[in-house]
Amino acid sequence: MSVKRFPYGGQAVLEGVMMRGVHQATVAVRNAAGEIVFKHEPLNVRRRHTWETLPFLRGVLMLWDALNLGSRALNFSAAVALADETQAEAVRSGAPAEPAPAQPAANTSTSLMMLVSLLLAIGIFFVLPTLIASLADRFGASPTLREGIKSLLQLAIFVGYIGGISLLPDVKRLFGYHGAEHKAINAYEAGAPLTVERVREFTLIHPRCGTSFLLVVLLINFVVSFLLVRDLPLIWRVLSHFPLIPLIAAVSYELLRLSAANYHRAWVRALVAPSLAFQKLTTREPDDTMVAVAIAALLPVLAADGAALGEYDPALAGGVPAADEALLAAHEAFA
Question: Is pTM, for the whole model, over 0.70?
Fold first, then answer.
């Protein structure tokens, strides 16, 4: 897979950012002492290359893989926060700090947790609106109207959920790191220097964002429901979500992939504008410390792929091994 064309991306975690490349994923988290700590995870390049050759199926496989990787990144950031809290409590009490518990190894428990989370999400965002909208049948509503009501309920639940959690201080900071992640990726893809001063100038919006993916899922779900299941009995409309959600996710992934590849076209930008505007729900303008963490997470990923780094801030390259030839060569060029 060409590194130059690879769609770099990531996600926000607690007080940090995870970035994913071809060969490696890196989590960068700022601890209570103000230091940036790192976790690097090698990735299975051959497996991803195989998945890339499987249209539609690749969307389901990559989504599941991304959810698992994201869960491990969140676990690491939570462990850093727990270690900080343990240290702070020890200082307050005057007792020696106990070492933070080791992070559990990646195994089936992570996949099981993700499966439970997905089932819960399907229940809240798909099954519940279906049940509530079915009450319209009692008032003689047409199947088309009922499906429209269901879609509006889904959108309202999603927006209400995001709006509700965004009031929490920790989530506000999480959304700030999400914005920093987007800015860093946008800056790199534009060929701009990876410095705080330049990266913070870029937009919070990115065409490959998962928030846009979720909106596309809701839209495709409406179309599928209207065409395939609107005339089915209630029990079958409810149960149909479980086999249809993977199909809807696969189609949504392909559409998002296609739109991102053609984002330079004006008509594509106009078409995806609503989904991009949706990202304003899950991003906030980051401060400079957040931008610095996002850059620090991106640099090791680029270096591991041998990507051309261009100009960057060496002070943020703490997560890159000193022997990394790609980064050293770039550093010498701009020293």
Answer: yes
